[in-house]
What we know:
Elements: H1 2-22, E1 50-53, H2 57-73, E2 79-83, H3 86-92, E3 100-103, H4 109-119, E4 123-127, H5 133-141, E5 145-151, H6 155-163, H7 165-172, E6 177-180, H8 183-191, E7 199-201, H9 213-226, E8 231-237, H10 242-255, E9 260-265, H11 271-280, E10 285-287, E11 300-302, H12 309-315, E12 318-321, H13 334-338, E13 343-345, H14 353-361, E14 365-367, H15 371-383, H16 385-401, H17 405-414
Parallel strand pairs: 1-2, 1-4, 2-3, 4-5, 5-6, 6-7, 8-9, 8-12, 9-11, 10-11, 12-13, 13-14
Family: Belongs to the glycosyltransferase group 1 family.
Domain Glycosyl transferase family: 298-397
InterPro entries: Glyco_trans_1, Glycos_transf_N, Glycos_transf_N_sf, Kdotransferase
Amino acid sequence: MMIVYNVIFCLLLPIILFKLHTSGSGGRGFGKRWREHFGFIPPVHADKPLWIHAASVGEVIVAKPLIQALRAKYPELTLVLTTTTRTGADEAAKLGNGVIHRYAPLDCPWMVRLFLRRTRPQALLVIETERWLNYMLACQRQQITVVIVNARLSPRSFQRYQRFPAFFRLWAEPVQQLLVQHADDAARFRALGVAEAKLHITGSIKFDMTFPDSVVSQGLALREAWGSRPVWIAASTHQGEDEPVLQAFKQVLAQMPAALLVLVPRHPQRFDAVAALCASQGFSAVRRSVAGQVLPTTQVYLGDTMGELPLMLAAADVAFVGGSLVPVGGHNLLEPAALGKPCLTGPHYFNFSDITLQLVQCGGAVVVQDAEALAVQVLDLLQNPGVCQRMGAAAQQVVAANRGALQRTLQALEQVLP
């Protein structure tokens, strides 16, 4: 099976590299560090470092509180953080000099072996559930502890692995612990044959997220620059989703001509296309990347920068989170919820069903089926500040009530890390 896997992976390698160096790098490439994807990394001169793998921006954001806690608890432990993408590396750079960053090797056996020779880690922590078989098997052969942190398994992925159970077992066998977010994730892992002793429900570290005061203050400053107009944000939109968002915005403008839409596409390679779409539909738009001034006549503020979504969420009154009007599976509502914003999501939120349902049940979020329903909800919230504030407070309470995953994760790690 591993021969089949490695042959297929090698055949797909040109496609993987092309996507990695176009979309995965945010269009900026990797410079002289491109060789690191083949395992040719600068050696890590430290005794038994801890290797933490976070594929891209989202995983690095999840890893941040864990990394900060590990640095505080084990000040002498060297942490090596790997990312696959350039945008993930940019986010990792914000952690400062206390963490060594390297680009992760691609999942070819010799690339992984070369990486391990140059790092010699005592353990690997994988943030969420990236399933590279050679990572796991190489660590098993070298007796390197493997822990999956903040793990989740969506219904779609579960169905996929049910069709190829042998490959899933190859991935799962070397894992010492699976620290899963929710009970439904644990049930799906259990159904695929993961031993009960390996499974620990720790909750989602994302609930333990905290935003520095600078994020809130910068968001407030941004909002003041926009004036007293009503503002809503459509965050992390995907291809095919911007059109219904703009359609909804036309309905909002018909009743609230002063409204401002902050539109933030999920992937940087789509920034230009979304800007062109706004122009083609007759919207007056300003791009954040060019520091354009928002005038009273500006209708769309295009968030075309990386790592600044939290401050734009902080500046908005209402947050719609994308990937949910199209069958992508949605994105996490916890960032706007933690900032006290009422949350809207489309019907396709299956990747974050537990969090979304908690927010819906407590009155902190609403599921909208289409562009028309989105427009109705946005108008209702923007026209009723009291309702807007109550929803935001309810969402924030859900986040507060679920905190503690970070501490439970640290306690679980104490059992397996030397």
